[in-house]
Each structure stands twice: as structure tokens, then as C-alpha cells.
């Protein structure tokens, strides 16, 4: 999870750099390439963020921690719209800085994320590193009795062993998941109509 987020931040910084240099290079193609890379990075970031934050949070704060991403997502959109005004960064001379500003949060995360541990469920379930899992839990949640959380992760691991993991192609082809897939695509496609930007 952590390595994916770090690589994703590099992708966002590269995208921001390409867009920021588009005016100097006098190339509108660089804006298109940068925006495409930025969209790919944002698409990867959302599920990765939810997963990582959910896995490193203590159970009693997990719901709150997952809801913060929606708040910051909306806050980022609002800041982008405000800073895009002509009086701020939306002027003819400053718009490359506005386009490159998406790299700033990625840079902050790239610098700070290495100080955070990998998620405990990932260490225990995928890497089978119980000692690393316990160390990560202590680093995240402090010293104390965390055996109940480790037992929950072990139960989840036992459940996952009996579950067949489908590839994307198998998921799309399987008629049993067709309606769930339609529902997810519809919800994702219409999320902009729900009023979250206004809120």
C-alpha cells in the first residue's frame, strides 16, 4: 500500500512538472499529457488512500479516518477553484503555476510517507511478517495490548484463504457480479451529480 502511494506521488509530481513547463515549451500537448497522467494518479490515489488509512487506523477511529478523505477531496476542489480566480493564479502569467500546484500535496506526501509504517494487515496477510505487523501496530497506536486487532487480522487471513480472488476480466465476465458491477459504475459515474462539490 505504502509503496504504491509513493510511486503514485512520483507520477503526480511528473504530471505537475510537465504541465508547469508547457508554457515555456509552448506545447499544449504537454498539458494534455500532464492532465491525463494527473487523472490516472488521482484514480489510483483514491482507493489506495482509503485502503491505507483504513488499515492503519485503530478500529474506533476507522470510520472517522475514512471520512476525512472525502472532506479533503472536496476541500482540494474548493481551493483549486478559489486559486484559479484571475486575481490569484488564474492570470495569463501565473496559470502554469496553477496547473503545477497539484504536485505540491504529492511532494509533501512523498517526503512524509516514508516515516509511516506499512499497514499491519498487509504485513501479516500478504508478507506473513507477524513481528513487522506488531512493530507497525506499536508505532501507529502506541504501546499497549493490541492482541485483539492481531487476532482479527488472523481471522480475516483465514477467511481470505478460502476465497477465490478474481481477475478484472473474470469479474467482468462473471454473470453473478453483473448487477453489482453496473451499480458501482453508475454510482461512480454519477457522483458529480450528488452535490458533494456544493457541500
From TrEMBL:
> In the record, what lineage is assigned to the organism producing the protein?
Eukaryota, Metazoa, Chordata, Craniata, Vertebrata
What subcellular locations does the record give? Membrane
Record's GO cellular component terms: plasma membrane
**One example of a Gene Ontology biological process annotation:** D-glucose import
Q: Does the keyword Nucleus apply?
A: no
Q: Which InterPro entries match?
A: GLUT, MFS_dom, MFS_sugar_transport-like, MFS_trans_sf, Sugar_transporter_CS
Alphabetical UniProt keywords: Membrane, Transmembrane, Transmembrane helix
**Which terms does the record give in the GO molecular function aspect?**
D-glucose transmembrane transporter activity
Its protein name is GTR5 protein
Stated membrane topology is:
Multi-pass membrane protein
Q: Could you tell me which species this protein originates from?
A: Promerops cafer
All residue ranges annotated as the Major facilitator superfamily (MFS) profile domain in the record:
1-199
Amino acid at each position: 500500500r505504502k509503496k504504491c502511494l509513493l510511486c503514485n506521488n512520483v507520477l503526480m509530481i511528473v504530471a505537475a512538472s510537465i504541465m508547469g513547463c508547457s508554457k515555456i515549451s509552448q506545447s499544449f500537448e504537454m498539458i494534455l499529457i500532464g492532465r491525463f497522467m494527473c487523472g490516472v494518479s488521482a484514480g489510483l490515489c483514491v482507493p489506495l488512500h482509503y485502503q491505507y488509512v483504513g488499515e492503519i487506523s485503530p478500529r474506533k477511529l476507522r470510520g472517522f479516518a475514512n471520512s476525512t478523505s472525502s472532506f479533503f477531496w472536496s476541500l482540494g476542489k474548493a481551493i483549486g477553484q478559489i486559486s484559479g480566480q484571475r486575481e490569484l493564479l488564474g492570470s495569463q502569467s501565473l496559470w502554469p503555476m496553477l496547473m503545477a500546484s497539484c504536485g505540491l500535496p504529492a511532494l509533501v506526501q512523498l517526503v512524509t510517507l516514508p516515516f509511516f509504517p506499512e499497514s499491519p494487515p498487509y504485513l501479516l496477510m500478504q508478507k506473513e511478517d507477524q513481528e513487522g505487523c506488531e512493530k507497525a501496530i506499536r508505532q501507529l497506536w502506541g504501546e499497549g495490548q493490541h492482541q485483539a486487532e492481531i487476532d482479527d487480522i488472523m481471522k480475516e487471513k483465514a477467511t481470505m484463504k478460502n476465497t477465490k480472488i478474481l481477475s478484472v476480466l473474470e469479474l467482468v465476465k462473471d454473470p453473478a457480479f453483473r448487477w453489482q458491477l453496473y451499480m458501482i459504475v453508475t454510482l461512480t459515474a454519477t457522483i458529480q451529480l450528488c452535490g458533494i462539490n456544493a457541500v
